[in-house]
Amino acid sequence: MNAPLYADAVVRSISPAAHLARAAGRRLVRLAGSGATDRYDRRFYPQRFDEPIEQALPRMRAPRRARREDAVPHVVHVIGSLGAGGAERQLAAFIAASQRSGLARHTVVTCHAAVGAAGHHRRVLEDAGVAIRTAGERAGEQALARIRADRALRRRMFAIPLGLGHEPVEIAGEFIDLEPDIVHAWLDHTNVFAGAAAIATGVPEVILSLRSLAPTHFPAMLRAWMQPWYAALAREDRVRLVANSEAGADDYARWIGIERARIGVVRNGFDAGQFVDPAPAEVGRVRDGLGAAGRPLVLGVFRVGDEKNPHHFVHVARRVLRARPECVFAVAGDGPMLSETRRFTEDLGGSFVTLGRREDVPALLGAADAVLHCSRVEGLPNVLVEAQALGCPVVATDAGGTREAIAPGATGFLRPVGDVAGLADDVLRLLGDAELRAAMSARARAFARERFPLGRMVRETHGLYGVDDGGL
């Protein structure tokens, strides 16, 4: 995120005389003892305190603005970036379809500049006429004027705890400038940042989108403030929580400590128009490029990080290759464990190929005989839906919402997380039985298109906004 422009504007909006008066007042109050100083600081400098949310939230809470009923709703989405992740892909697909429908007007605010790898999905949004901003990159004149003129607003922004960083204040500045009817946040950090900012700026409705299992499954990303903030936001009437799988909703409800009914579910959707069977010549090109011409091809498409268990993928490959040395395994995706995975598979030569991030994933899926997915934690894996849509059976671990993404025994196989031997057996079974593979392929195509159409996901999300799209 850029320098904290809006936070700086809030501080500068207090006159020098007021700063001097507060400082002089604090010197006098100190004579009355530490208790008086503490009360004075909490009144005039609340951002200094890492106080309980139950105390911070009332000072932050703005009157809830009325939603404009005479126009299509303006929805502001908040997400970390527009990189090549599953949540980012769903955001882009939904917003592009919704914007074109004319039933909602969308703006995207990112915490990090959506350029380079962090802007993977930017073009999809821009082609649909969606405005994209980076929080705090350029302060809006309307927002600055309001901050300067509205003392109560400044106090609410000051009350946002410093422990959350400067992102919530910068996002609040964007909300002041954009005046959304609805804020739709995606992923844990930005759910809290945008939720806090929305409460402080009076946004009428807030949707927090839960895209996997609870963050306790991701120790590197977990923060101590996440659970208390989720619990506090869940108590706000204007806030709704929605997961992309039943497993995710169950897990978040347990972790937050709220009733399961408090979390809705809208499963992912995919654009069938982007997943058309590649032509035979394209399949041949892909297979030739992987050294898999005339050889069984097993594909993995995932972020090469701990939660996807890339080492288990490699162990499965080694077991399969001992029985079927003519096979080729390929992994498409980037991540922190990519270099390690490459080193770990050097001895396998051309039988194991790491591709990095690819733009031709539909062609890769269409060329594969099977997709292998070894995750230890999942929300609802897009790649398994997309693989099935292209007629590629899957072998996967029963992690999170994976069971909801396939029809076990009909379109693919499931094994417990960590069952390397079982996963290898299932891959060998698929590769060794062309009739079984063809039957699963046919059922997979129908299953993916019937259960996960983009139109269903768009319609259900419009329903969260209170928009009837007539079944578009």
Plain-language structure description:
The structure is a single chain. The chain folds into two domains: 74-269 and 455-464, 3-Layer(aba) Sandwich (Rossmann fold); 277-452, 3-Layer(aba) Sandwich (Rossmann fold). Strand 1 (74-79), helix 5 (86-101) and strand 2 (105-110) form a beta-alpha-beta unit. Helix 10 (188-201) packs across helix 11 (226-234). The mean pLDDT is 91. The protein has 472 residues and is an alpha/beta fold. A seven-stranded parallel beta sheet has the order 3-2-1-4-5-6-7, with helices on both faces. Helix content is 47%, strand content 13%.
Short structural description:
The protein is of the alpha/beta class and 472 residues long. It contains 21 helices and 13 strands.
**Radius of gyration from CA coordinates:** 25 Å
Which descriptor suits the 3D outline?
Answer: elongated
Helix-strand category? alpha/beta
> What is the CATH superfamily label of the largest domain?
Glycogen Phosphorylase B
Query: What does the average pLDDT come to?
Result: 91
Write down the domain tally. 2
CATH fold-level assignment of the largest domain? Rossmann fold
Q: Tell me the CATH architecture of the largest domain.
A: 3-Layer(aba) Sandwich
- Give the low-confidence spans: none
Strand-residue proportion: 5-15%
Number of helices: 21
Helical percentage: 40-55%
Largest sheet: 7 strands, parallel
End-to-end Cα distance, whole Å, is: 36 Å
CATH class of the largest domain: Alpha Beta
